């Protein structure tokens, strides 16, 4: 089956006083209608990779790639008009912090309904009904009341669920979720993951799940990319993550606290400069 997304030798750099600094260095992967996890430390290039797929990098960034295609569409050659037709409708991005993603002067209901009207071409009445359905889908109690609230009136966890609801309204083919459950408690986290899993299984959606949580990614995703300093160090089936062979992945796994752990201190991850040459 033809991949939904193909990324080959993606590179992103920024100008600095001492020259260009590479933030993403030759990342390559393909994605079918499956759940792909991307893990790594802060600054490893996970979020930049996700934003590059959407072509939503800051003006100071320089992006290069041998190939960046979505469902047969060359995203590198796509016009601004083509990209506007893809973003939101076919590829959605859930950002980590809803405070910077939600419009502070629009109610929750207005923002979700706007997404439904623009991407789903629904009437105002149908858009409102769709917004209520999506708020219920992400387990928000009393959605009628929440529809009337402004972003500053909701908690961080509820704001995150509202963002997920808004991005799922158009029923995209690809969802890029950047730490989508970081602000949620464990119970709601599992509920949101169940919603995402249902979309992948029943609708055939592709999912890129960006996270720091190796245990969560290992239990939820089908495949995992492990990134360090802008490079992919290792790619494994999620079920085999515990058997990782790269020393960086092993170090990340060893640094995780365990309930039955009798170690007095968690180990510090040692980094080898040679990893940048050995990463694929």
Overview of this structure, please?
Helix 3 packs across helix 4, helix 3 (108-120) packs parallel to helix 6 and helix 4 (124-137) crosses helix 6 (156-168). Strand 10 and strand 11 (231-237) form a beta hairpin. 35% of the residues lie in helices and 25% in strands. It has helices spanning 46-54, 80-86, 108-120, 124-137, 143-147, 156-168, 186-203, 214-220, 247-254, 275-278; strands spanning 5-16, 19-31, 35-40, 61-64, 67-70, 73-74, 91-94, 174-178, 206-211, 223-228, 231-237. It is built from ten helices and eleven strands. The longest helix is centred in the last third of the chain and has 18 residues, at 186-203. The chain has 280 residues and is an alpha/beta fold.
Radius of gyration: 19 Å
- Main sheet specs: 6 strands, mixed
- The global form is globular
Fraction in beta strands: 15-25%
């Amino acid at each position: 089956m033809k991949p939904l997304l193909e990324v080959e030798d993606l590179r992103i750099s920024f100008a600095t006083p001492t020259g260009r600094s590479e933030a993403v260095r030759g990342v390559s992967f393909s994605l079918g209608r499956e759940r792909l996890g991307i893990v790594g430390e802060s600054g490893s290039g996970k979020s930049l990779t996700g934003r590059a797929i959407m072509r939503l990098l800051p003006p100071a960034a320089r992006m290069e790639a041998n190939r960046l295609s979505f469902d047969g569409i060359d995203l590198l050659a796509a016009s601004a008009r083509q990209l506007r037709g893809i973003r939101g409708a076919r590829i959605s991005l859930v950002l980590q912090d809803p405070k910077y993603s939600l419009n502070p002067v629009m109610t929750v209901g207005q923002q979700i309904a706007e997404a439904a009207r623009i991407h789903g071409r629904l009437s105002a009445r149908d858009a409102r009904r769709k917004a209520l359905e999506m708020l219920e889908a992400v387990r928000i109690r009393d959605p009628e009341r929440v529809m009337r609230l402004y972003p500053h009136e909701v908690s961080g966890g509820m704001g995150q669920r509202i963002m997920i609801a808004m991005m799922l309204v158009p029923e995209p083919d690809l969802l890029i979720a950047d730490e989508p459950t970081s602000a949620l408690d464990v119970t709601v986290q599992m509920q949101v993951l169940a919603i995402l899993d249902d979309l992948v299984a029943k609708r055939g959606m592709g999912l890129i799940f960006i996270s720091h949580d190796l245990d969560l990614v290992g239990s939820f995703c089908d495949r995992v990319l492990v990134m360090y300093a802008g490079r992919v160090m290792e790619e494994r089936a999620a079920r085999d993550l515990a058997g990782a062979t790269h020393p960086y992945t092993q170090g990340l796994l060893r640094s995780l606290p365990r309930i039955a752990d009798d170690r007095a201190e968690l180990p510090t991850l040692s980094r080898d400069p040679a990893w940048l040459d050995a990463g694929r």
